[in-house]
Amino acid sequence: MIRNVLVAIFGVMVGAAAHAADLTQAPKPAPVVETMPGFVWTGGYVGLQGGGAWLNSDLSVPGDSASEDFNGGLLGAFAGYNYQMGDWVVGIEGDVSYNWNDNSFTVFGANTEVGTDVSGSVRGRVGYTLTDRALLYGTGGWAVTRGFVDVAGAPKEKETFNGWTIGGGVDYGFSDNVFGRAEYRYNDFSDKDVGGVNVDLDQHQFTVGVGVKF
Questions:
Q1: Which helix (H) or strand (E) holds 70?
Q2: Is the full-model pTM beyond 0.85?
C-alpha cells in the first residue's frame, strides 16, 4: 500500500513539473508588419502651369487719367526646391510665363497693340502638410513683367516693370514623384513712365499645373 501511495505522489509531481515547463515556454514572436514610408516633400522639382490672368493698367498724365484691363491666358514653367521639417515645408521657387493679354487701339489713325508678354518671379514658400500628400502653402517675393506698345509702321517699344507678388495654393502628390498644383497670386508690378505717361500695372492670376519631384 505504501508503495502505491509513493507511485501516485511521484506521478503527480512529474505532471506538475511538465505543466510548469509549458507555462514558462517563451511566447511566439508577433508577426512583423512592414510599413511604407510617408510621402516626403524634400527635394528639387520642375513643372508646367497654365491659367488665366487679369491685368489692370492705370494710365496718368498731368491733369488726366484712365484705366484699361488686359486679360487673357498664360502658360509657363516653374522650378524650385523644398525642405520638409515634420509637418512644415519651406522652399524657394522661380517661374516664367508668357501672357496673351494685348488690346488693340487706334492712336492718331494707326493701329496700336498694347499689353504684356513675358513675366516671372522668384519667391519663398512656407507650407503645412494637411494630409500625407496634400501641402497647403503661402508664397511671396519679387515679380517682373515686360510691357510693350506696338504701333503699326514703327519699332516695337518694350519696358520692364519690377514689383512684388504674394499668394498661396495647394500641391498634391499623385505618386512619389508626380504632383498637381492649384495656385492664386496677386502681382503688383509697380509703375513706370512710358513716353511721358505714368503706367501702373497690377494683376490677379490663377493657374493649375503639374510637377515632377526628384
A1: strand 64-85
A2: no
